[in-house]
Design goal:
The structure is a single chain. By secondary structure, this protein is of the alpha+beta class. It has two domains: 216 residues, FAD/NAD(P)-binding domain (3-Layer(bba) Sandwich), CATH 3.50.50; 147 residues, D-Amino Acid Oxidase, Chain A, domain 2. It is built from ten helices and 19 strands. The strands form three sheets. Strands 1, 2, 9, 10, 11, 12, 18 and 19 form an eight-stranded mixed sheet that branches. It has an eight-stranded mixed sheet with strand order 6-7-5-14-15-16-13-17. Strands 3-8-4 form a three-stranded antiparallel sheet. It binds flavin-adenine dinucleotide (FAD). Flavin-adenine dinucleotide (FAD) binds next to helix 1, strand 2, strand 13, strand 17 and helix 9.
Length: 391
């Protein structure tokens, strides 16, 4: 039976970030195997992502992960170059603009306080300032907005994932096209993974980076991972409206939009009671007609005349306890590490999480950024660490 020191189940952006950071860690001398069920990556969250990064979260841990994500993305060409060829991950710097009506003002201000304490470059704008700065925006019903001034923006998710993967391979990581069907558990350890074809690979440790497949995989080791697949639809439209400033705007009701090429991308964060577990890829066109378009046209009158060009659906891996990452080993199984439940912000967190997983595997602790608050204990205790700013 083949043996690898570390087996990573799932080779999209999180699995590849873990593979890259682990193989780059000066204290690591072992072997790494990444098992990816679908090497076309056609339907994983990474490929279907909006690929945006922000520092405007409500919890310090999420802010700090994204701050590292921004630094990593800015230097990706340097860090991930292979044979002198630097990848271009297509980063476009642009701030998020969170809008609040009167009843959302207190939360916006509280978030601003946390963000400033973490050194986020962000400004609170009152209604007058919003109207002056963004003359295309309908501001009558707004109380304020929170605008990211630096560090935020969007990138090419596919390029980041492939750059991580390419660099990991150059550093000795092995990728194989295979689905992990079963984790072989003996007491407190995973001793091997069984693949769909029935073969087995023995291992020293396993990382679960299987996205929306993570809960099913965890169940094969007897672990109940509270992560569900929730559909998100993204629409691309053209509009005659000219918006000279490039921002990702989040309306108080949850509808968001940002520029993309000659048009705009948009979508909406659904309320919990309208957001069932879902695995299909059917685009919910009624969502656009009934919810998104009216909100867009109200906020930017010029969007009344927009035309949808195309749309797609993808899935968030939602942590149903608190919409935050679950990171690290479950206390019952010491060599099975989780990085799941990203709930829509995993692309930007992948560099920080990949680095954290490498540290846990090599040193058994966080060496740079302490992410212990994202561990299993809060899940086991039923103590949510709720993130308010979910888009
Ligand atoms: C519409 C949409 C918009 C988004 N926008 C943003 C955004 O703006 N910013 C942001 O930061 N994040 C965003 N996200 C979230 C982000 O894309 C995800 O959090 C992130 O890509 C998760 O990466 P992952 O590698 O964990 O999972 P995935 O990309 O889903 O990859 C999991 C991989 O595991 C493989 N796999 C599954 N089961 C197995 C198995 N048993 N064995 C082997 N392989 C397996 C799958 O084939 C897949 O390739 C968005 C997501 C969606 C859907």
């Amino acid at each position: 039976m083949a043996y690898f020191d570390v087996v990573i189940a799932g080779g999209a952006v999180v699995g590849s970030a873990a593979a890259y950071f682990l193989s780059a860690h000066p204290g690591f001398t072992g072997s790494v195997l990444v098992l990816e069920a679908d090497p076309s990556y056609a339907s994983c969250a990474t490929t279907r992502s909006l690929a945006s990064i922000r520092h405007q979260f409500s919890t310090p841990g999420n802010i700090r992960m994204s701050q590292f994500g921004s630094r990593f993305i800015a230097q990706a060409g340097e860090w991930l170059a292979v044979d002198g060829v630097a990848p271009d991950v297509g980063f476009h710097a642009a701030g998020y603009l969170f809008l609040a009506s009167a009843d959302g003002l207190a939360a916006l201000q509280a978030n601003h306080g946390v963000q400033r304490q973490c050194g986020v470059d962000v400004a609170l704008l009152d209604r007058q300032a919003l109207a002056l700065r963004f003359p295309w925006l309908h501001t009558q019903d707004l109380a304020a907005g929170s605008l990211g001034l630096s560090g935020e923006g969007w990138l090419d998710a596919h390029s980041l994932m492939h750059a991580l993967r390419r660099k990991a391979i150059a550093q000795g990581v092995v990728y194989r096209a295979a689905r992990v069907a079963q984790l072989r558990r003996q007491g407190e350890r995973i001793t091997a993974v069984q693949l769909q074809d029935g073969s087995e690979v023995a291992c020293g440790a396993v990382v679960n980076a299987a996205g929306t497949g993570a809960a099913a995989l965890a169940a094969t080791a007897g672990i109940d991972l509270p992560v569900q697949s929730r559909k998100r639809c993204v629409f691309f439209f053209h509009s005659p409206a000219q918006l000279p400033h490039s921002h990702l705007v989040i309306d108080p009701g949850g509808v968001y939009f940002r520029p993309e090429g000659a048009g705009f991308l948009c979508g909406v964060a659904l309320p919990e009671d309208q957001d069932p577990e879902c695995f299909d890829f059917e685009v919910q066109h009624t969502l656009f007609e009934e919810t998104i378009w009216p909100a867009l046209a109200r906020r930017v009158p010029g969007f009344e005349a927009l035309r949808v060009q195309h749309a797609w659906a993808g899935h968030y891996d939602v942590n149903t306890l608190d919409q935050n990452l679950i990171l690290g080993a479950h206390p019952a199984v010491s060599n099975l590490l989780f990085a799941n439940g990203f709930s829509g912000h995993g692309l930007q967190q992948s560099p920080a999480v990949g680095r954290a997983l490498a540290e846990l595997l090599v040193a058994g602790r966080f060496e740079t950024l302490d992410l212990s608050a994202f561990g299993w204990q809060r899940v086991i205790d039923g103590r949510p660490m709720r993130e308010i700013n979910v888009v």
